[in-house]
């Protein structure tokens, strides 16, 4: 009986020692950062268009309703959905009352137009009397597939991290193993900022050139960046 107990004790000690050896032999790893940047051509462009009444001649004044009707029809003719054109602001408080009291008051309205490209912009603006357009500028750009680009940027960042780790490991005669862990550090979307006083002023009193060709308008690009940390095993 004593011999049996002694044998079991020795076997148990051997198994315990083997398990400790396995735990002490930790996997060697390397941790690296990977970054990426994707440049996107916007397919959602917001234009602000300001129309203002003006005196066509001594006896004729072109009112805001006429200009608005011209713009609405030009947008419709270009095949742009009606809901893409909205009123952004109307000049002055209770401008309609002022208009009735003051014949010299020239009402103005600012519209916001959503486009997928600028290809039809000049044809739309040509449908409105030039003298009634005081300003046209790009206020914002975006992309309908922005979430897809965000994911693509993450993948590119992870691929960059793997490539970096491979070069480093191979430089010391080792081989890169499987990824052990991935941490997303940052994912950013940089959209160009526009305003009424600068940047892409296309037509109107504030523009330098009132006959800008559609294809020459630079509306800038969107940039998506990603930064990840990855841990890879070393074989």
Automatic annotation (TrEMBL):
<keyword id="KW-0732">Signal</keyword>
<dbReference type="GO" id="GO:0006974">
    <property type="term" value="P:DNA damage response"/>
</dbReference>
<dbReference type="InterPro" id="IPR052022">
    <property type="entry name" value="26kDa_periplasmic_antigen"/>
</dbReference>
<dbReference type="InterPro" id="IPR007497">
    <property type="entry name" value="SIMPL/DUF541"/>
</dbReference>
<feature type="signal peptide">
    <location>
        <begin position="1"/>
        <end position="19"/>
    </location>
</feature>
<dbReference type="Pfam" id="PF04402">
    <property type="entry name" value="SIMPL"/>
</dbReference>
<protein>
    <submittedName>
        <fullName>DUF541 domain-containing protein</fullName>
    </submittedName>
</protein>
């Amino acid at each position: 009986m004593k011999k049996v107990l002694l044998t079991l004790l020795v076997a148990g000690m051997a198994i315990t020692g083997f398990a400790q050896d396995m735990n002490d032999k930790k996997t060697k790893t390397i941790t690296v950062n990977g970054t990426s940047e994707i440049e996107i051509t916007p397919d959602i462009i917001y234009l602000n268009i300001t129309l203002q009444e003006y005196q066509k001649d001594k006896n004729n004044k072109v009112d805001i309703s006429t200009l608005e009707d011209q713009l609405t029809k030009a947008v419709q003719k270009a095949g742009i959905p009606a809901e893409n054109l909205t009123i952004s602001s109307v000049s002055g408080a209770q401008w309609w009352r002022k208009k009735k009291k003051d014949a010299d008051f020239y009402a103005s309205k600012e519209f916001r137009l959503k486009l997928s490209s600028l290809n039809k912009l000049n044809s739309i603006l040509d449908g409105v009397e030039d003298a009634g357009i005081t300003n046209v500028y790009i206020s914002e750009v975006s992309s309908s597939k922005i979430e897809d680009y965000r994911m693509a940027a993450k993948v590119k960042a992870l691929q960059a991290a793997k490539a970096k780790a491979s070069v480093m490991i191979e430089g010391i005669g080792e081989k890169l193993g499987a990824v052990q862990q991935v941490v997303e550090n940052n994912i950013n979307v940089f959209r160009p900022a526009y305003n009424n006083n600068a940047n892409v002023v296309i037509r109107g009193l504030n523009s330098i050139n009132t006959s800008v060709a559609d294809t020459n308008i630079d509306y800038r690009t969107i940039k998506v960046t990603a930064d990840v940390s990855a841990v890879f095993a070393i074989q």
